[in-house]
Amino acid sequence: MKKPELLAPAGDLEKLKVAIAYGADAVYLAGKNYGLRAKATNFNEAELLEGLYYAHSHGAKVYVTLNILAHNEDLENLPEYVRWLGAVGVDAVIVSDPGVVSIVKEEAPDLDIHLSTQASVTNYRAAQFWQDQGVSRIVLARELSLKEIKEIKEKVDVQIETFVHGAMCMAYSGRCLISNFLTGRDANRGDCAQPCRWKYYLVEEKRPNEFYPIEEDYRGSYILSSKDLRTIEFLHELVEAGIDSFKIEGRMKSVNYVATVVNTYRQVLDEIFHKGKDYQFDPKWLEELAKSSHRHFTSGFYKEKAGGDAQTYESSHYIRDVDFVALVLEVFEDGRTAIIEQRNNFNLEQSFDILMPGGVIKEGKILKMWDMDGNEIDKAPHPQQRIKAVFDTDIKELAIIRREK
Question: Residues in domain Peptidase family U32 C-terminal (predicted)?
Fold first, then answer.
């Protein structure tokens, strides 16, 4: 079996570095335009160059999203941007629009083209068509079963990428107009307001002021809100299907999410290939994934067609059983003194769960800490406050400091 690529989201430069530190083989990101996550921080040209250098120096690849469904005005500056992406050494672009595919082929013919899930490839003839157009990888529609994916892989000699973890869109391949209709924000051009996560009530047509709660929830119903995808329990089956790249969703998610999810899938993938036929799933991996914010989970369409149990009716809110307390930015020569950045209030009396690059998890405490003016402090109440801290254990740069709620 060929070990699949583990592909992680990079909503900004910090998340890019964290994803790679915790085991991603490649990251996907967007510039300031043309991607489907306009509300993410994203990358200006200087940040993209820095991220590209960091990734390549650590043996990782960078894919840039150009996957909006482009209107005429979107094409005006695109050729110049594509030429620049090709010139600086981006490893591939992710595209959904045939017109954008043609621009990439004209302006940067050596740049690999990955076809976005937005293109809704659901069969092997469509996969063959896109390969004939010069596409080197296809991100299949999420609505495919494992059996269908295997058949496409067997009949078409093209790289296949599928999602393995993260939020799912209730619309077919993510192509939704509800946001446009309710808010004027175009989901297919990167500006989705996520109305599928809103709470809805039933109203009788002739009595618009009378609300009728839908039975599932007396407070309203989240009938459009999907559960999150999780495949880690049967990841070995995806490996056996010959899928080339496993994609984690979440460019809008936190650094803790990126580190925790990437690290866990990295461990499982490595274990599958290390143990071979002796591989067995360890429930500890589910416990670790639960330490990142998530909704209830579903296996998506891999096992069977997603039905009512793939939706969440009670709430669209995330489950957060663990607080992300701080990120380690820099470690001094003694290995225990570090500059950290606060992400949740904490104080000296607390014990922490520390996730380190490489997958080591240890318990630890901060013995002393100072603000950046050199004043000794015993608590950190200010958002993203930078602190010099001495730990009771060795620490690593980009370690995630967590605590149970």
Answer: 320-402
